Automatic annotation (TrEMBL):
Ca(2+) binds at residue 588. Keywords: Calcium, Disulfide bond, Glycosidase, Hydrolase, Metal-binding. Its cofactor is Ca(2+). This is alpha-1,2-Mannosidase. It comes from Lentinula lateritia. Disulfide bonds join 392-426.
Length: 609
């Protein structure tokens, strides 16, 4: 416009001054409009780039890490072969629909479905835990109608407890809050953020103990708290809120969420714990360790997970947390991994850690295993010999560590072997049973002298002897249907539809690319279909080794079956990598949370150094 004006007027031979140009344009207000709009668009579009990226308080508008909803495997070709993974993932999706529909038709809005009788269980808060736990699986499977219906119900919840009612903090965080946060991250539905924020606020007073460790349960009506039956805070309870509260702090900008969660981490940094051997119980008042049991099973399990995953979730920025994971996993491998005498099954147990032995008269102060007073600095352990299904998450965690940590080659080797050998043992405990489903707890056969069964010294010896054949614990004995050949007895005979073995198979598949993990997962899914399926859902199995035809079932369908077991199976079978492991971390209830970076504003606001 300006050039056409210039071409037609007295100033055409030279560039006009700003005042001259303005006076020429002044009489033509309408012809200004497109120019002005164009200018505004350019400023709007390039402004953030010129200013150097999005502003720091850009909290509610996080970009989606992946495109959703992805297309579910709806098609079912008539000629599909039995090992068509698309068809298999479709079958898992159908299993999910079968269980959620059963819950929806018979138990909604109670906590869980009783899948035999069609009755209900209000075994948690009575807030409909199955809806919260199933939410992100619906999204991942592309079940948008169920998802939208569930979000409507969730939008109406108040989370106020009834008089005298207390809700368990740990379970509510990992199932309800984890479910809300994950579904929000996937769908960006603001109702989910609003409800996550509401629930997060209402549960926060659980941290108001003298030490800052969370109480077992809380009344959201009065903010009063209660301890659990141990009288202590379990290590799993102390740390299995970090992913949830820190992500919540990130998406709401509220420092109190970060501070309360971080206080628990602070206690871990300050605790006088040798070699990352964090015990299973902590004094809620003083924040100090209160027993000497080291475990990856019940009481401890998810705390181990949250060390590595916290570091991953905040884009590997909080290196102090990574060091805790490195120490703890080293100690697990050293003190808790054993092999059985005949089958050489690698397993993880728990142990009472003995205090360092008293000074030896001739001990050299320079010896790496002695303190300057001559006492042994490395504690010895007394293993229990139990192997819990709950511990079958560990191979997946170790494999994730191998994939994401910059471990020295020799450690990488040990962690990968431990992951592979343990995942195989978890598989064997399924393959050995008449139903093909794994028992909840096993009692492992031990060497007459316990320390002879420790895995790590055997691996070192194998290395020194020239590494012939596969390392100990990785020699893959075949399934043993006869009790005598198993090297263990069954301590708890139930299969509670738990996810841990399948969770590890999924991570093993994604990190090693070995399709054998998919095949094993498929075998387990078929056993679930055969023995656990009822007319309206899926039921826990009472005795996994009872019968080769129909196993007796319990009238229970835990919500984690929809949150975890079916989700991991689905992700194991879909070829598409729906939840890439470099962009998401799974909370301990399999709710994926996106990996993010703290902004400069957050670092200042939350005091993150
Ligand atoms: C789930 O609720 C969670 O994975 C928890 O951390 C422990 N295990 C159960 C399912 O077995």
């Amino acid at each position: 416009m300006l050039s056409s004006l210039l071409a037609r007027n007295q100033y055409s031979s030279r560039i006009p001054s700003f005042r001259e140009a303005f006076s020429l344009l002044a009489g033509r207000p309408l012809r200004w409009v497109p120019q002005l709009l164009g200018f505004l668009v350019v400023i709007w579009y390039f402004g953030p780039i010129i200013r150097g990226g999005p502003p720091d308080d850009y909290i509610y508008e996080l970009p989606l890490p992946i495109q959703h909803p992805h297309l579910p495997p709806l098609y079912k070709p008539p000629t599909a072969s039995a090992n068509d993974w698309k068809l298999r993932s479709h079958q898992v999706r159908e299993a999910f629909v079968h269980s959620y529909k059963g819950y929806r038709d018979h138990a909604f809005p109670a906590d869980e479905l009783a899948p035999m009788s069609g009755k209900i269980h209000n075994n948690f808060n009575g807030w409909g835990v199955t809806i919260y736990d199933a939410l992100d699986t619906m999204w991942i499977m592309g079940l948008t109608e169920y998802f939208e219906e569930a979000v409507k119900v969730i939008g109406e919840a108040s989370y106020t407890t009834k008089p005298k009612q207390y809700v368990p903090f740990f379970e509510t965080i990992i199932r309800h809050l984890g479910g809300l946060l994950s579904a929000y991250a996937l769908s960006k539905d603001p109702i989910l953020l609003q409800q996550a924020d509401r629930m997060g606020e209402m549960l926060l007073p659980a941290f108001n103990s003298e030490s800052g460790l969370p109480a077992y349960a809380i009344s959201t009506r009065t903010n009063a708290t209660r301890g659990g039956w141990t009288g202590n805070t379990l290590w799993a309870e102390a740390l299995s809120n970090q992913l949830e509260y820190k992500y919540l702090a990130h998406i709401t900008g509220k420092p109190e969420y970060f501070e309360k969660a971080e206080r628990c981490m602070q206690l871990m940094y300050e605790a006088n714990v040798t070699d990352g051997i964090f015990p299973t119980q902590w004094n809620t008042k003083t924040g100090a360790p209160s027993n000497n049991k080291f475990s990856v099973g019940a009481f401890a399990d998810s705390a181990h997970e949250y060390l590595l995953k916290q570091w991953l979730m905040t884009s590997r920025s909080e290196t102090k947390i990574k060091d805790l994971y490195l120490n703890a996993s080293k100690s697990i491998i050293e003190h808790l991994l054993y092999i059985t005498p005949n089958r050489e099954m690698l397993y993880v147990t728990d142990a009472d850690m003995l205090k360092p032995s008293p000074p030896k008269p001739n001990a050299s102060p320079e010896s790496p295993k002695t303190t300057t007073q001559g006492a042994t600095s490395i504690p010895s352990s007394v293993p229990s010999g139990t192997f819990e299904h709950l511990s079958c998450f560990l191979p997946g965690l170790l494999a994730l560590g191998v994939q994401t940590l910059d471990l020295p080659e020799s450690e990488k080797e040990i962690h990968s072997w431990a992951a592979e050998g343990l995942a195989y043992s978890c598989w064997l405990t399924y393959a050995d049973m008449k139903t093909g489903l794994g028992p909840d707890v096993m009692s492992m056969k031990m060497y007459p002298k316990n320390e002879d069964g420790l895995w790590l010294p055997r691996v070192e010896k194998w290395k020194q002897q020239g590494r012939s054949g596969r390392p100990p614990g990785l020699r893959e004995p075949g399934a043993a249907s006869e009790k005598a050949g198993r090297d263990y007895t069954i301590y708890k005979r139930s299969y509670l539809l738990r996810p841990e073995a399948l969770e590890s198979f999924y991570i093993m598949w994604r990190t090693t690319g070995n399709p054998v993990w998919r095949e094993r997962g498929w075998t387990i899914f078929q056993a679930i279909e055969k023995y656990a399926k009822t007319e309206i859902g899926y039921a826990s199995i009472v005795d996994v080794d009872k019968s080769s035809t129909k196993a007796p079932v319990k009238d229970e369908m835990p919500s984690y079956f929809l949150a975890e077991t079916l989700k991991y199976l689905y992700l194991l079978f879909t070829d598409e990598e729906i939840i890439p492991l470099d962009r998401w971390v799974f909370n301990t209830e399999a709710h994926p949370i996106p990996i993010f970076e703290w902004t400069e504003t957050e670092k200042k606001l939350f005091n993150i150094s």
